[in-house]
Amino acid sequence: MPRQTPLYDAHRKLGARMVDFAGWEMPVQYTSVIAEHEAVRTAAGLFDVSHMGEIEFSGKGALDTANRLLSNDLARISDGQAIYSGLLNDRGGFVDDVVAYRFSTERILICVNASNREKDYQWMSQRAVGVEPANRSDDYAQLALQGPKAAAVLQRLTPTDLSEIPTYHFAEGKVAGVPSIISRTGYTGEDGFELYCPPADAEKLWFALLEEGREAGLKPAGLGARDSLRTEMKYALYGSDIDEEHTPLEAGLGWIVKLDKGDFIGRLALERQKAEGVRRKLVGFELTGAGVPRHGYRILEKGNQVGEVTSGTLGPSVKKPIGMGYVPPQIASEGSAFDVEIRNRPVAARVVKTPFWKKQ
Questions:
Q1: Could you give the percent of the chain with pLDDT greater than 90?
Q2: Residues 265, 286: contact at Cβ < 8 Å?
């Protein structure tokens, strides 16, 4: 039986089409994926991401303990900042990709993917040296307000000065009277905020945001638009584009690896891989023939399979069939050509510069 977020009844009231996602009953769309996608690109969209998990390290040594589990470096940022990072296995593969929030050296909150909530907590608990993590996942609901008009809508509902919260920074304050963590983060490629609040207050906050943003064109948005928006940015999805068998260096995420920060899990494997060179790279491509690439489709070079599509869609903003996939380094450079097999026929594709979507 899928779990339900604190906003389940709100989604039903709004007529959302619900699907099972990572063991959660989630809205895939309210009206249409394209309409919700375009709302985020031109005005604003509101997503329920309460299925995500939160794991906290608190007390003396919290920063050092958490930092040994992360590929990125919490010591390089200030209190009130967040970083995107990997939790890596000993082979350098992704246990998960996460966002870590530094409240202080004695309080670190790590947001993990919904499908990995329990796995990540167990993994961290078994490897934490110094401070035991606490699973706070049921203590938070999370709403993502994304789009060029997101800041203006949100500012009308909070006394917190949002101009003082740059990208990947956060503050604690009230939104529509609800105590929240206000984080200038998101996974759409647009400006926006992720709001962490008590589950009991989630519905009040949800409808306050929708009402305040109505005239600006704010729409509730589901997982369908979330997926097409992140694909247009070549943002990796755990379980599709990254997993335990793929490393940050292969995924084009070397910037979240700080090999010089000191020891962390996966460091030795990544140092070795960096010295030897990767054998595959995650590229963005567009089809030059007819069709739409989908997850699992085979990538062919001269008729031989050399990889497979990890994500693919007809991008609503770029208006092209686009995708991602791992290919050998020799065909990973911009302009390289290969085929994607669609219904037993090869369709021409070429590697392009990413992100696919660039703000107008």
A1: 99
A2: no
Beta carbons within 10 angstroms of residue 89's beta carbon: 16
pLDDT over 90 (residue 360): no
pLDDT tens, residue by residue, 78-135: 999 999 999 999 999 999 999 999 999 999 999 999 999 999 999 999 999 999 999 9
Q: What is the pLDDT of residues 50-72, one digit of tens each?
A: 999 999 999 999 999 999 999 99
> What CATH fold (topology level) applies to the domain 3-47+140-232?
Gyrase A; domain 2 (3.30.1360)
The whole-angstrom separation of Cα 101 and Cα 99 is: 7
Distance, CA of 325 to chain centre? 17
Distance from C-alpha of 160 to C-alpha of 306, rounded to nearest angstrom: 51
160: its two tokens:
């917190």
44: Cβ contacts below 8 Å, ≥ 6 apart: 145, 146, 147, 148, 149, 150, 153, 192, 213, 216, 217, 218, 219
What are the structural domain ranges in the chain? 3-47+140-232, 53-136, 279-360
270 SS3 class: helix
| CATH fold for the domain made of 53-136 | Alpha-Beta Plaits (3.30.70)
Q: pTM, whole model, 2 decimals?
A: 0.97
Contact between residue 144 and residue 47 where contact means Cβ atoms under 8 Å apart? yes
DSSP 70: B
Helix (H, G, I), strand (E, B) or coil at 103: strand
